[in-house]
């Protein structure tokens, strides 16, 4: 089996984001045979405008779409903004979903999220699941990785220090691998 290529997207543009830290933790916990590439450029994407989506999209959009096309799957970590997904993440999905190739249709996607609040990113993840279902992505259903009170689950250097969260991330990555290659479920 070839190495699986997972493109990881953080819905947070913040430099010290717990969600980006969650993706870095996933990269250290990922199963053998997978590579997780973290995209740090969602903030470069212009706001979606159908007038710009005319066969020659802006360079950052073309590059983003190419990265999604090359990925076997996506791993998205989202914070919660006003009980939903952040604007930058929704914008990225809009650009990806309108590509003529249907980049997200059938693409396996796993979702996680971290928030300092008592409910984690549960409402943002619910909204994200609805968005991804609408564009035809194949979303991993379980486990749900909603890291609440995330400021207590990471060190000051943004290293994951919570074994329970680490176990959930491992399970999520395994479930995503099984979505890509269903026969790996028996292993």
TrEMBL record:
SUPFAM superfamilies: Flavoproteins (SSF52218). InterPro entries: Flavoprotein-like_sf (IPR029039), FMN_Rdtase-like_dom (IPR005025), NAD(P)H-dep_reductase (IPR050712). Gene3D superfamilies: 3.40.50.360. Residues 5-147 form the NADPH-dependent FMN reductase-like domain. PANTHER family: CHROMATE REDUCTASE, NAD(P)H-DEPENDENT FMN REDUCTASE LOT6. This is NAD(P)H-dependent FMN reductase. It comes from Nonomuraea longicatena.
